[in-house]
Sequence to fold (637 residues):
Amino acid sequence: MANFLKLAWRNIKRHRRRTIITSSGIIAGVAMMIITNGLLTGMLGQTISNSVELETGHIKIYPEGYYEKSDLMPTNMQISDYGKVIEILNDVDGVEYASPRIKAGGMLQIGQNSAGVVINGIDPKNDLKIRDLKKRIIKGEYLVADDSNLIIGKTLAERLEIGINDEVLVSSVAADGSAVSTTLRVKGIFKTGFPSYDGSMIFTSLLQAQNMLKIERDNATEIVIMVSHPEKVKDVANSIASKLREKGYNYEVLHWEQLAPELAQFVEMEKSMGTLFVSIVVVVASIGILNTMLMAVYERIKEIGAMSAFGYKRRNIMSLFLLEGLIIGVLGAIVGLILGVGVTQYFSVVGIDFGSGPAVVEYMETCIYPRLSVFDVVFPFFFAISVALLASLYPAYKASRLEPVEALRHV
Amino acid sequence: MFENIVQLNNVTKNYSLGKTTVKALRGVTLEIEREDFIAIMGPSGCGKTTLLNLIGCLDTPTSGTVLFEGKDTSKLDADRLADIRSEKIGFVFQHFDLIPVLTAFENVEFPLLLKKLDKKERSERVYYALQMVGLSDKTSRKPLELSGGEQQRVAIARALATKPDIILADEPTGDLDSNMGDRIIHLMRGLNEKEGTTFVFSTHDPMIMEHASKIIKLHDGKIIKE
Fold:
């Protein structure tokens, strides 16, 4: 085998330029595959983490039947005594934080201007562990416990020309079905960078929201949970659901993929599109290998004849040519891997700014920081090698089927 | 042990070249005994190489039988024929057919890799064979760095190193000057006498014919004189 490897290696070196050109297809394929994977993983990671942080959390608990109507944000469907529920949640393995929230649709008005908004009642201190709006405040201040003031997004503030300390009228439908409106003072303006979020989300304390929407002191419309190991979110969600059932609570437990199905779908689609696209590149590159190996077989017909004459069997000849294809594949894959990982690492620091086009999905940022998982690197590497081996199969078979006499007679 | 290493009985061999059929051999009967030193002569195209290919188990006849140590070669599969070639037969091709990426040493070693020899024994055999053909100082040269004659000698050393029962050589002295040709023939004759190796040559070289124990004249695919 060692001698065969030596022979294969020298045969490859025999046509150095041809080997380099052939490998370059594999190099480009593997590098592109890794870079694309890095971009996708980075983009999806950022998008998911934005969505999780700003909206869904890892897991949400809703009152029974709420999810179906969650677009309407009904305030009459509530989680009673959320404190007790959170106590139960804290006992579940993998739960890191849990925080109650109230959400309601409403209207914000200042002077002649008004806009539809989502009213969020939060526990300012606890919510920070999940959604750090404090660091996103660009003017004024963040909320304190039981705050009766409001923070609003930059886009909304600009559109309605609202400044710090301005008083605005917030209207909504209370839990009892009555129309309510309250005047609140704007204490801070935040910026997440996502126009629809900054243009519609307003935040006040849980207590203020309860008062305004006529919700009892111990009640909320949802509980948001962060888990310590996001990859195990489904298991944690299952544990929570069974624990709650055990304690007699009939709440809905949903993880982020269920809460943002369009995002989960987008993740799946992007991944399969990416894999398909780069697989095509690698397959095209393998045609180069097929061509090179066929040429190599043709050039060495007499040598193949001599090998048979010495008693080398068909399988020996086939292995030699497969080995040569394999070496080209491995070389290309190694260089492609180094190139791909190098480029990805560089952009993971400086980021790639795709400009300010409209976001395809919510919470997608325009500046992507590529990131690589082990699979992102390992898959292209072995995929390229397998394809190279597959492309050498036919030429190697052809070489092994040459009749010794015909081969020796070849000019 | 069979006295006849190879026996051909009324052997014909046809090749198709496009639509025409070339009758390369037309009923050849021949016995090659152990320790023979046979020269096959004849004009080019008379079927010498075809005959060598059949004797060397590289090909099987269209009709008739070729018995190698009593075994009918047309009844053996490709792997068995390869085993016979590896164990019993040495070839010296007309165009040497050295592997260009391997050195002289590695070329001679190449057929030995199929034998179960340790590295030391293999090296010894290779050096010995190269020494016999007078190339012990050029073992690390690649074929393109050797003259035509030197390449031919590497090809001869390659056939000798495996210590085969029979060596088939197609015009082995064609590319050698008369001095070296003479040396090689003496070397082969010595091996033939000392080791009992059987030799079959196709040749035009009168020197080989001088040493031959048997001369076969081939014309138009038939033996005209034995």
About this structure: The interface with chain B takes residues 3, 7, 10-11, 13-14, 302-303, 305-306, 308-314, 403-405, 408 of chain A (CB under 8 Å).
